[in-house]
Every structure is written in C-alpha cells, then in structure tokens.
Amino acid sequence: MVQQIVSYSGVVTHKDDKRWRFSEQDGGVVSVTIAPALFNPTDTAKRDKYLTGVGDEATVVWINSGIPLARVNSGEYEGLFGPYDPDATDGRQEKIWGLLESQIECNVKFSGLTVGEPMVGMRYRGDIRKRYLPVIPADDAVWGGDFWDIDEDNTIIAKLSLTEAGGSSQATVPDGSITTAKLANGAVTTEKLADKAVTAAKVADGVIPSGK
C-alpha cells in the first residue's frame, strides 16, 4: 500500500511521501549515479522540495523519492544525474529521464552533502500520480521513459511521453474516459490535442466550446 511514512531521527522529523506511486511495481528501474550537491542548492524553495529532515541541528537529511531526474551534460558533474530543473544550464533543463525510486539518506558535512553510495535506482517507466511528486514538472516538460499519470479514480489522465521541441505527443483516450464531470468547460482545446482527436462521440457536448 502506497503511503506517507513519518520518522524521527532523534534530531529532526522527516517524512517519506510515496503517494506519487500509483502502486508498487516490479521492474522499470535502472541504476544511475547522482551528484548529491545538486540536491542542496542555494535556492531554499527548491532545496525544501528536494530534501526532507532539514534543520539547524540535522546531521542527516534525506533526498525525497519521486524527484524527476535529469542528466548533466556539462560542467563539474558531467555524466551524473541531478534534479530536473528548467532553470538549469548544465543539461538538466532538457528532459526528465526518470524518477528517483527511493528516498536517499545523506550525511551533512561542512563540505556539503555526502552519500554512502551515489549509485541509486531511477524509475524509467510506470504508473504514477504526477500531482504528488516532490517537484511537479510543467505540462510542457519533456519526459523520457514511459510514464502514465493516473487520477484518484484510477483513470488515465495522460501519457507523459517524450516530446521534442516542435514535436507533439498524443495518447489514445478510451471512449467515455473524458466526461463533463471530470473536465471543466474549456479544459480540452485543439491547442492541447490534435485536431479531431476528441469528437462528440467521445466527449459529452459542451466540454469543448464551439469554435475550438
């Protein structure tokens, strides 16, 4: 069962929020090597999404599971992985390679964060609940791998697939899966879906405003 786990280290409290997982899934994980320093940026708003258990007296903190990971292709950490960041300039802004499979324990030292084993598991496919990720990528973020976003009713919302600049990505929408009860008026437009991808046979009249 997917859940939130709250633990007390003796100094600070940290939690392991696993709600981003639709369910426990076998396979779909590869090993990658992370650069711990990239999860401890000077931007505290980003740091607080990456780490849990942070405190003035903390000697150990944890990198949250479910963080979207991206590969560094330039600079000091070239070839390693860090958090996907659209504001980065080292390659991590280009696409999401996968999600951090498990929470990672880090030692806090004067020199920064260290981990006993920087090689970690990265999930590259699976069913997830995107809204519960520690860092929620924008709708136009480029995804690698094979991920499906699932809602609370266990219905597919979207396929989070690779979309290069200037390209497009479409997912098959099962008949009856989109209803006026699930989508606000105007939520589906031809800017988001290819022309004629949604028809009156699939969507109740009024979900797509006239003129769209």
Task: Please provide a written account of the structure.
This is K structural protein. It comes from Bifidobacterium oedipodis. It is a single chain. The chain has one helix spanning 44-50; strands at 4-8, 13-17, 29-33, 51-52, 60-63, 68-71, 81-83, 98-100, 104-109, 112-114, 119-123, 125-128, 146-150, 156-160. Residues 1-11, 165-173 and 201-212 have low confidence and may be disordered. By secondary structure, the protein is mainly β. Strand 1 and strand 2 form a beta hairpin. 25% of the residues are buried. The protein has one helix and 14 strands; from the N terminus they run E-E-E-H-E-E-E-E-E-E-E-E-E-E-E. The strands form four sheets. A five-stranded antiparallel β-sheet has the order 3-11-8-6-7, with no helix packed on it. Strands 4-5-9-10 form a four-stranded antiparallel β-sheet. The protein has a domain at 29-164. Helices cover 3% and strands 28% of the residues.
